[in-house]
Amino acid sequence: METPTTLRIDDHSSYVVITLNRPERLNALSPLLLRELRQALEEVAQDRAVRALLLTGEGRGFSSGADLRDAEGEVGRSGTVDVANHLLHGYHPVITLLRTMPKPVVCAINGVAAGAGCSLALAGDLVLAARSATFIQAFTRIGLIPDAGSTYLLPRLIGRQRALGMVLLAEPVSAEQAESWGLIWRAVDDDRLHSEALALVQRLADGPTVAFGLAKAALEASFGATLDEQLALEAMLQGTAAQTADFRAGVAAFQQKRAAQFRGE
Ligand code: T3D
After folding, report:
1. Ligand 1 pocket list (CB less than 6 A)
2. Half-sphere exposure of 8 (CA within 13 A, CB side)
3. C-alpha span between 121 and 7 (Å, rounded)
4. 65 CA closest ligand 1 atom index
5. Which of 64, 78, 89, 109 should be mutated for ligand 1, with most atoms under 8 A from CB?
6. pLDDT of the residue at 155
7. DSSP character string of 39-104
8. Residue 67 Cα to ligand 1 middle (Å)
9. pLDDT (tens digit, 9 = 90+) per residue, 36-54?
10. Which atom in ligand 1 lies closest to the alpha carbon of residue 118?
11. Do residues 103 and 206 lie in contact, with contact meaning Cβ atoms separated by under 8 Å?
């Protein structure tokens, strides 16, 4: 991949940190950033040596959503825009890549996550947020509806009433409120966010990667499945997990009363 201009990518061998890097615009999602993020995510998804991903933002915001000032942007040229096309080809591949990533994705929310930036934040598997961070479904403030997955994610995470409250009122939700609602995994002190996020992503990168990926897929499928369908899916995916070297390593470690060393295969 060519060196991206809107992201920083740090390869820690077993995990990768992607940092949205347009702090002067609170990491607004320009078309270029979305293209670069898509390419980076495709590489992370395919690289078997990379066993977990951390996504965060540079500066005082995680992401302010669609870039409302970008000349190339669709929203900025409102009136003549093909927003649907921009969503289909710009945002959707990024959200889908995050949701189907066959390895854990941690999002570390360092500041405001607004509009599609909030959707991006919530697309992670485990979301940590600095206590000063806020989540804003800012879309209706500018006459849009939630997009980039927010109408899917919000009711599943926090239920219809809270989802509607966030969407219709478009007020900031604090990290602590987000944690108590189950919108995110945990709120942490601002000065602990980076170290806690790194510790979490390292822990996940040391885990049974195949089982993590299959578990994610099973949980995702459950929303549209009956109990019988879900039981059948579990049986099939467990059959795959049980063939991994990590399963054998896990059982051996249990029998020998020691910690398992997983290799992600
Ligand atoms: O085709 C499509 O893309 C459709 C998809 C749409 C999806 C969406 O995401 S729609 C929602 C778009 N986002 C918003 O409406 C949020 C806009 N931003 C804000 O409301 C506020 O900036 C925040 C609440 C996020 C933060 O407020 P505050 O007071 O902390 O910061 P600020 O002063 O407003 O912003 C700091 C700078 O970032 C400022 O630039 P300046 O004046 O210092 O040069 C501001 O213009 C810039 N900025 C903030 N948000 C955006 C942005 N620049 C471009 N696009 C932004 N979204």
Report:
1. 25-26, 28, 64-69, 74-75, 83, 86-87, 112, 114-116, 136, 138-139, 141-142, 144, 147
2. 12
3. 15
4. 9
5. 64
6. 98
7. HHHHHHHH-TT--EEEEEESTTEEE-SB-SS-TT-SGGGTTS--HHHHIIIIIHHHHHHHHH-SS-
8. 7
9. 999 999 999 999 999 999 9
10. 9
11. no
pLDDT of residue 250: 98
Calculate the dihedral angle through the C-alpha atoms of 56, 58, 59, 60, rounding to the nearest 10 degrees. -20
pTM comes to: 0.96
Q: How far is ligand 1, taken at its centre, from the CA of residue 29, in Å?
A: 10
Distance, in Å, from the CA atom of 265 to the CA atom of 259, rounded to the nearest integer, reads 17
Going from the Cα of 189 to the center of ligand 1, the distance in angstroms, rounded, reads: 24
Gap between the Cα atoms of 112 and 20, Å rounded: 13
Do the Cβ atoms of 185 and 200 come closer than 8 Å? no
Residue stretches of the chain with pLDDT short of 50: none
Q: Tell me the C-alpha to C-alpha distance, in Å, between residue 158 and each of 41, 55, 161, 179, 236.
A: 27, 22, 8, 10, 30
Nearest CA to ligand 1 atom 46: 25
Three-class SS of residue 263?
coil
pLDDT at 52: 98
Nearest protein Cα to ligand 1, atom 17: 64
- Going from the Cα of 214 to the center of ligand 1, the distance in angstroms, rounded, reads 37
Residue 106 DSSP SS3? strand
- Spell out a b/e string for 112-148, using b for 16 or more CB atoms within 10 Å of the CB, else e: bbbbbbbbbbbbbbbbbbbeebbbbbbbeeeebebbb
Residue bearing the CA closest to ligand 1, atom 5: 66
